[in-house]
């Protein structure tokens, strides 16, 4: 069974500024700083933020709950980043594949749409697991990044 969830979040910041946060390791540092209590602690295991980078997210309030993801796609021209869980997280729950695609779409000079998409695959006998997929953390991250980038712009 394959499934997909997608959500678009409008933020009041230029696409180039939003992409500069999403494209590399700054996103993980921001999640740590602004949302660590909600999303978890992010640490770089390997890489410099480009394709092949592996990060580990340790979930808050759990004993040993974590996931590792690898950056599979980093397209600066299209402003697309795609990651895939390679250990822990949804894989431990029974998913075969769990990918996150983040697209930064310029709406106009001062606003951007962050499209967050989750693609997953699981055995047909485990279809009930699909109810565990939620886009909410990615929405929260998009909202916080939008506020952060807007705030940086007004500080300049």
Concise synopsis of the structure shown:
This protein is an alpha+beta fold and 156 residues long. Helix content is 28%, strand content 42%.
Keywords, separated by commas or semicolons:
globular, 156 residues, alpha+beta
Please tell me the total number of domains. 1
Report the top-level CATH class.
Alpha Beta
How far apart lie the N and C ends?
48 Å
Structural class based on helices, strands and sheet pairing: alpha+beta
- Figure out the total of helices: 4
Element-by-element helix/strand order: EHHEEEEHEEH
Average pLDDT over all residues:
92
Q: Which percent band covers the strand fraction?
A: 35-45%
CATH architecture annotation: 2-Layer Sandwich
Give helix % range. 25-40%
Main β sheet profile:
7 strands, antiparallel
Number of strands: 7
Shape: globular
Strands of the biggest beta sheet: in what spatial order?
1-7-6-5-4-3-2
CATH-defined superfamily: START domain
Could you list the spans in which at least 5 consecutive residues all have pLDDT below 50? none
Instruction: Please name the CATH topology.
Output: Alpha-D-Glucose-1,6-Bisphosphate, Chain A, domain 4
What's the alpha carbon Rg, rounded to whole Å? 15 Å
GO molecular function: abscisic acid binding; protein phosphatase inhibitor activity; signaling receptor activity
Organism: Salix dunnii
Pfam family, one: Bet_v_1
GO cellular component, one term: cytoplasm
């Amino acid at each position: 069974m394959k499934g997909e969830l997608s959500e678009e979040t409008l933020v009041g910041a230029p696409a180039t500024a939003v992409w500069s946060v999403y494209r590399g390791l700054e996103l993980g540092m921001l999640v740590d700083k602004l949302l660590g209590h909600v999303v978890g602690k992010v640490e770089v295991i390997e890489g410099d933020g480009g394709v092949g980078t592996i990060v580990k997210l340790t979930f808050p309030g759990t004993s040993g709950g974590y996931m590792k993801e690898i950056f599979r796609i980093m397209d600066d021209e299209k402003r697309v980043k795609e990651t895939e869980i390679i250990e822990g997280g949804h894989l431990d729950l029974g998913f075969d594949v769990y990918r996150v695609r983040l697209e930064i779409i310029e709406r106009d000079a001062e606003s951007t749409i962050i499209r967050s998409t989750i693609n997953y695959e699981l055995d047909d006998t485990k279809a009930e697991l699909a109810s565990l997929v939620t886009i909410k953390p990615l929405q929260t991250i998009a909202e916080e990044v939008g506020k952060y980038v807007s705030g940086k712009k007004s500080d300049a």
